[in-house]
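Example 4.3 (complexes with small molecules)
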Amino acid sequence: MPELDLPQRQAPDSLMLTDFWYRALPADRLHRNQLQKATLLEIPLVIGRDRQGQPFALRDACPHRGMPLNCGKFDGEDLECGYHGWQFDVHNGQCQLIPSLTADQKLKVDRIYAGSFPCEEQDSFIWVYIPDPGTPGAGFAPPIKAPDAAPQIEKFSVKYKLAYLQAEMPVSIDHGIIGLMDPAHGPFVHQAWWWRTQRSIHEKKKNFEPILNGFRMSAHTPSSNSAPYKLLRLYADADSITTTIDFVLPNVRTETIRAGKYWFSSLTTVTPITRNQCRIDVVAAWNLFRWVPFVPELLKFVFAKFVEQDRRTMELQAEGLKHNPHLMLIDDADRPAKWYFQLKAAHLEAKRTNGEMKHPISGPVTLKWRS
Ligand code: FES
Ligand SMILES: [Fe+2]
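Answer. The structure with fe (ii) ion bound is encoded below.
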């Protein structure tokens, strides 16, 4: 039976999912022996890089009396709080020294921890693992280990280029994500003579399939109506260009374009900063046009323009959302958005019951829309 044809009322709950890796900041902004502030899921963090170049992430509040640790002193090894000089090991948060203790005071200093989060550098970004609230890692409990590594961009050759783009948006994670996967806004938001115009709007049909924690737009030949793809076909001299787009919880969209020996891969995340603010980070890797002058710059320009158009749109949308209007999701164009909410609900339900996640998509589905 077809799913309900009536528009569905929908109110994003903007719940932020814990127990996942999130991008905190671009790696080139974090220098050795230095600290940076960041916020993820409303948690204030101090992120730093030690003398050896290893990044770390701590809760930006001293476990003693809450002084932000970013105001402390960092010598590339230990971090000293600016209030009473307690010192912490930056990689596990363990307290090393409490200067006020006298020789006969037996407080077990090493049992005290500043909140420490698993932290990794991956493809130009510093990633931080945010565990469920209430998980050990501060006070008197040691930090947890992340169950897996931070997500990586898929690469298909040894040599490639890498670039990133960021944009902050004054909307919740949910609006950020459904905006990212929404196929119908293209002709209205991303108009440009070199890309596509409103007149080029036509019916599209795409196949989707369930994957672990998400869904995939199955490998397909990209829109023939966009100039960059025409250019790519010419350059790669490939008969077939295929694109695969995946979305997986909590916030990861990956896109892979392959044309013969050439490839382009991107990993985009929408990171919840606070309940009403998110940031989109696009990191792209590619081996095409590596030798053609200006093309990487051009690609970056095109990408930046897209992201800026999305950012501007969401900034305007935030005005409308202020008054908490009723919203709706329609078929088929908003079906990916519906899946996102269903995946999120299924994930939370599985966590609550400690069981397997019931995937909301039972098998391959074809969606149709005009864009
Ligand atoms: S608040 Fe940090 S040492 Fe006292
Ligand atoms: Fe967009």
